[in-house]
Design brief:
elongated, 181 residues, Immunoglobulin-like
């Protein structure tokens, strides 16, 4: 691990990043220990980064993560949509075919992500959900209302790209991003 471009610690590890419905904790451990500080963004690469690569990539946003070789996950924590914080969800996962977005706070799950035709939205209870699909400028493209615990939205007419899904219910509001293939 590098801290301010200086190698602080090194541990060999192997395996793959899980794409199941489990939560990804950044800045905390399951034991309840939390990082005391500020995290601007997190990048996960599937190769060993050199000190030069770290210096060249630090302090800049990656404009098109899909074009970056070996970038597996990219989490930005500086985004809002219409004044609503959307940082609790991931922006980008490369080389995945079925990622589940889950908000345990509201008991709502979205899958698959990326999506081709039908976006599934599950709620852990029968509540009225007002669902909006927005483009990245915040323009509303679709409005749906669901009173069921499972809703399938046919979004096949959307162009390939990145979209926001805004869900309002009696439990609150969440906004997450989806990739339409």
């Amino acid at each position: 691990m590098y801290v301010d471009v200086i190698l602080d610690n090194s541990v060999e590890s192997g395996g793959t990043i899980s794409t199941n419905a489990g939560a990804v904790d950044i800045g905390s451990r399951a034991s309840g220990l939390y990082f005391l500080g500020t995290i601007d963004e997190v990048r996960i690469w599937n190769d060993v980064r050199t000190q030069d690569e770290i210096v060249n990539y630090m302090n800049r946003t990656i404009e098109n993560p899909a074009d970056e070789a070996n970038l597996v996950a990219y989490y930005k924590f500086d985004e809002t949509a219409g004044g609503t914080d959307i940082n609790r969800f991931e922006l980008f996962l490369a080389n995945t075919t079925n990622v589940t977005e889950q908000s345990s706070e509201f008991g709502i799950t979205l899958f698959p992500n990326p999506v081709v035709d039908v976006l599934n939205i599950l709620s852990n209870s029968d509540i009225t959900m007002n669902i909006q699909i927005l483009d990245m400028t915040g323009k509303t493209l679709y409005n749906f209302v669901s009173n069921q615990s499972k809703t399938g939205l046919n979004i096949s007419s959307l162009k390939t790209g990145l979209y926001l899904v805004k869900i309002k219910s009696s439990k609150g509001e969440i906004i997450t991003k989806i990739i339409k293939e």
